[in-house]
Automatic annotation (TrEMBL):
GO molecular function list: calcium-activated potassium channel activity; potassium channel regulator activity
A Pfam family of this chain: CaKB
Domain of life assignment: Eukaryota
GO CC terms in record: voltage-gated potassium channel complex
Transmembrane segments: 20-40, 170-193
Cellular compartments annotated: Membrane
Cell membrane in keyword set: no
Keywords: Glycoprotein, Ion channel, Ion transport, Membrane, Transmembrane, Transmembrane helix, Transport
Species lineage: Eukaryota, Metazoa, Chordata, Craniata, Vertebrata
UniProt entry tagged with the keyword Ion transport: yes
Gene Ontology terms describing biological process: detection of calcium ion
Membrane topology: Multi-pass membrane protein
InterPro entries reported in the protein's UniProt record: K_chnl_Ca-activ_BK_bsu
Annotated protein name in UniProt: KCMB4 protein
Length: 210
């Protein structure tokens, strides 16, 4: 019996391979759990109750109010600048009530009063020029042409988004890579055990023949 058990003992390389497999399995499961609780569930809640619609620009205007933004000019250099507030009011195909357009959910959370947050520059004038360029874009290039927008009646019924932060591709990757990690770990463990089992059987058959 002792000799039979000894033949089933794993080598150092096989032991490391099995440990790597179990590590990948645990990492995949923890990633799925963490992403599901901390990121995927809020993303699905944002998408729940929402949908797409056709939007048409009603008005484009700059408010007198200015908002602060933080710029970076080096590793240890940070400062505060200001930018004007641009509002793009649209009418959706789902409602006759005007809605405020935003770039995406992140921009909506950062500044719910404005439709656009420019890349923060050190010079306030540059920020103003970026906002003015965006204003001309919506007035002259888009104008009355309909475009696709997104809304969420449960979270922000009076706001619409130009694009979604959490689209289908991001949600797919949220599931895909932890699942791949889990499956690779299972495959490594299974192959290592199967290879050891076959090697032991081959050795036993060889001993019987001799």
């Amino acid at each position: 019996m002792a000799r039979s058990r000894a033949t089933y003992e794993y080598t150092e390389a096989e032991d490391k391979s099995i440990r790597l497999g179990f590590f990948l399995i645990a990492a995949g499961l923890l990633s799925l759990l963490g992403l599901g609780c901390c990121w995927l569930r809020p993303a699905l809640q944002e998408r729940g109750g929402g949908g797409s619609a056709n939007c048409t620009v009603l008005a484009v205007r700059q408010l007198g109010e200015r908002f602060a933004c933080t710029f970076s000019c080096g590793a240890a250099c940070r400062g505060t600048a200001r930018y004007p507030c641009l509002q793009v009011l649209v009418r959706t195909s789902r409602s006759s009530i005007p809605a405020l357009l935003h770039e995406d959910e992140r921009q909506l959370r950062t500044n719910p009063k404005c439709s656009y947050i420019p890349p923060c520059a050190r010079d306030d004038q540059e920020n103003s020029e970026n906002v003015t360029y965006k204003q001309k874009y919506w007035k002259e290039k888009v104008g009355s042409q309909p475009f696709t927008c997104y809304f969420n009646q449960h979270l922000r019924p009076d706001d619409v988004m130009l694009k979604r932060t959490h689209d289908e591709t991001v949600l797919l990757h949220c599931f895909l890579w932890p699942l791949v990690t889990f499956l690779v770990g299972v495959l490594i463990v299974a192959l290592t055990i199967c290879a050891k089992s076959l090697a032991v059987r081959a050795e036993a058959i060889k001993k019987k023949k001799h």
